[in-house]
């Protein structure tokens, strides 16, 4: 009787792990979200996971080295065609406020002796991206924080400007702390943490669906696919989902926001990079109401 019972259980388990049930979109999303709770995946993670040895660094799961000998193909792409790299693990810090106030305080953490600064005319107009080294406020040439890249949003006739600073995840906390200090930014009084909580509840529901894949497809599953369109986890590898991601200064009016994993970043290398972007990106028609 025990042997027959064991055989019967094995048959039931085999039915629960059918490929069709496991490959449903809602089940895949729930499983992927559950697997990246500790280490966040990039948008191109699945493509890299099939072709690269993955490593866990800085709170992310990144491709380290290819599983095949593709060095010649990469070199050929860089010299004759185009090679794309996913740099979305770099953290983006967004600054909003009056241009004069931004430049006044940012001048304290950089120096013209090292090269370009945030006040460079070509970069300040928003046409080009700049790069520089940041230091602790009023401590140059000591207290170096690390290299960053930045880009200004083009002027729109308003005094308020928008600046994006891209930093390596290993340097993010130190640079963010220094920016909050020079701009005297504190956490806003109203911190919205309901969104991450809702997302976590939805994840738990989806995980329950994954654990109960043995049931046949029902109408509830179809409704669930439409009702739970969760595709990512709130937060990133350098920030806890329940921490605040926006700070504002009551004295200067400067606002700092952490836009990590909200803005994707890719690097194109090769002579055909510009032509590929031209063919891929199409300008949208501007409609005025």
From TrEMBL:
Matching InterPro entries: Pop1, Pop1_N
Pop1 N-terminal domain: residues covered: 4-97
Gene Ontology biological-process annotations: tRNA 5'-leader removal
Pfam families the record matches: POP1_N
Gene Ontology, cellular component aspect: nucleolar ribonuclease P complex; ribonuclease MRP complex
Alphabetical list of PANTHER family matching this protein: RIBONUCLEASES P/MRP PROTEIN SUBUNIT POP1, RIBONUCLEASES P_MRP PROTEIN SUBUNIT POP1
Protein name: POP1 protein
Gene symbol of the encoding locus: Pop1
């Amino acid at each position: 009787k025990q042997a027959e019972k064991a055989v019967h259980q094995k048959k039931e388990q085999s039915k629960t792990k059918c490929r069709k049930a496991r490959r449903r979109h809602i089940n895949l999303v729930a499983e992927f979200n559950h697997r990246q709770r500790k280490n966040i995946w990039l948008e191109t993670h699945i493509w890299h996971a099939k072709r690269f040895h993955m490593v866990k660094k800085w709170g992310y799961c990144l491709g380290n080295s290819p599983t095949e000998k593709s060095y010649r193909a990469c070199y050929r792409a860089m010299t004759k065609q185009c090679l794309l790299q996913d740099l979305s693990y770099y953290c983006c810090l967004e600054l909003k406020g009056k241009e004069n106030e931004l430049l006044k305080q940012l001048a304290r953490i950089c120096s013209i002796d090292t090269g370009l600064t945030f006040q460079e005319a070509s970069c300040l107009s928003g046409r080009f991206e700049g790069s520089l080294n940041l230091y602790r406020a009023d401590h140059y040439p000591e207290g170096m924080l690390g290299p960053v890249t930045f880009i200004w949003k083009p002027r729109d006739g308003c005094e308020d400007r928008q600046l994006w600073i891209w930093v390596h995840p290993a340097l993010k906390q130190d640079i963010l702390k220094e920016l909050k200090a020079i701009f005297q930014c504190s956490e806003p009084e109203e911190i919205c943490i309901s969104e991450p909580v809702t997302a976590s509840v939805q994840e738990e529901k989806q995980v329950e669906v994954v654990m109960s894949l043995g049931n046949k497809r029902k109408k509830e599953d179809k409704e669930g696919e439409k009702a739970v369109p969760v595709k990512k986890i709130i937060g990133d590898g350098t920030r806890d989902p329940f921490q605040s991601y926006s700070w504002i200064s009551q004295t200067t009016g400067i606002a700092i926001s952490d836009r990590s994993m909200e803005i994707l970043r890719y690097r194109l290398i090769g002579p055909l990079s510009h032509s590929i972007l031209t063919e891929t990106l199409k300008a949208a028609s501007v409609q005025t109401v």
